[in-house]
Design goal:
7% of the residues lie in helices and 42% in strands. By secondary structure, the protein is mainly beta. The protein has 2 domains: 32-131, Lipocalin (Beta Barrel); 147-323, Jelly Rolls, CATH 2.60.120.560. The strands form 4 sheets. The chain has an 8-stranded antiparallel β-barrel. Strands 9, 11, 12, 14, 17, 20, 21 and 23 form an 8-stranded antiparallel β-sheet that branches. A 5-stranded antiparallel β-sheet has the order 10-13-22-15-16, with no helix packed on it. A hairpin with a 2-residue loop joins strand 20 and strand 21.
């Protein structure tokens, strides 16, 4: 009995050490095994004349053959949609390679990279075409004098770091070098986890100075909040939800001014941060009154870049810093 209990404890420790991401069949790090649930998901754009012209749509997979469809007048977030505009939403069911659903106003049919909108009698109102947006700063090269922390060739600039597929940086590490005022460019990729919700869906975080977290999460199509992707955790929600679908490379470009302290260690000014997600400003000169939970407390000294491990297989590439 004691041996059996000991083996059970050892097994629990091994599972906890490995992380559930390696055992979950519904966690995908590449599109091909994800099937039609991922193929249907994504962004669509086009005209619906009876609704007033240009519209964008985001189709979000919820697992178990269910999807939600969010419509944005004017275009997609960051590309025509005005934040205060009224959106439309309905739920649809995936059957084979097509998803169909209806509300009390209209119907949709999604498949073959098209999203068709119809009235309740089946008359066409317009078609939206699927597109795959790319961040305007994806692959950006640091200016002369920048410090390259990760270029895919090694992890020597980080503590507790490892490579994924021999070219991506895994989460759960921090830079050896510390930084004060600086600019940061970082690219991240979130797994596709259609059956998960909230903080269990592609969670990680970029901790500037190891103190201030810019949340990483699969928040595609969701309401902007401080604990969703792009949020400064417990401090500020993003101006826009600029999340792309999971398994799409996304970017943060961060301009950071550290908190200032006097000779006695008293703080004289708060840290200030500006964040661009996928090339669009989501935080504009926001003051940070204190550190956010999860790593190091606020201090007068420089701090490292920390990439949070929250149990999901988030990976990073092309990380560089410019000291100011």
């Amino acid at each position: 009995m004691q041996i059996r209990n000991l083996l059970a404890i050892v097994l629990m420790v091994v599972v906890a050490t490995i992380g559930y991401e390696t055992t979950r069949a519904d966690t995908y790090t590449s599109p091909s095994p994800a099937g039609e649930a991922y193929t249907i998901q994504g962004e669509y754009s086009g005209n619906i004349d009876t609704w007033g012209g240009s519209w964008g749509a985001q189709v979000v997979s919820l697992g178990n053959s269910r999807v939600s469809v969010f419509f944005y007048p004017g275009g997609l977030p960051g590309d025509g949609f005005l934040v205060d505009s009224n959106t439309k939403k309905l739920d649809a069911k995936l059957d084979g390679k097509t998803a169909e659903g209806s509300s009390d106003e209209f119907r949709v049919s999604i498949g073959n990279s098209r999203l068709s909108v119809m009235d309740l009698d089946g008359k066409s109102l317009g078609d939206l075409a699927k597109l795959n947006r790319q961040s305007t700063t994806l692959g950006a090269v640091g200016p002369e004098g920048s410090i390259v922390l990760f270029d895919g060739t090694g992890v020597d600039k980080f503590r507790d770091a490892s490579l994924v597929d021999g070219r991506y940086l895994s989460k759960g590490c921090e830079s050896i070098e510390s930084f004060g005022d600086h600019q940061l460019h970082i690219e991240f990729n979130i797994p596709f986890m259609p059956k998960d919700r909230g903080q269990g869906r592609g969670n990680s975080g970029v901790y500037v100075q190891g103190r201030y977290e810019i949340q990483i999460l699969d928040s595609f199509g969701l309401e902007v909040k401080d604990n969703e992707c792009g949020g400064i955790y417990q401090v500020a929600k993003p101006l826009h939800n600029m999340c792309y679908p999971p398994l799409t490379w996304q970017t943060y470009d961060i301009d950071f001014t550290a908190a200032k302290h006097d000779a006695q260690g008293g703080k004289t000014s708060n840290a200030i941060i500006t964040v661009r997600q996928n090339g669009v400003i989501i935080h504009d000169s926001v003051e940070l009154p204190s550190h956010t939970p999860g790593k190091y407390p606020e201090a007068s000294s420089p701090g490292p870049l920390y990439l949070q491990d929250h149990g999901n297989p988030v990976v990073f590439q092309n990380i560089w810093v410019v000291k100011k």
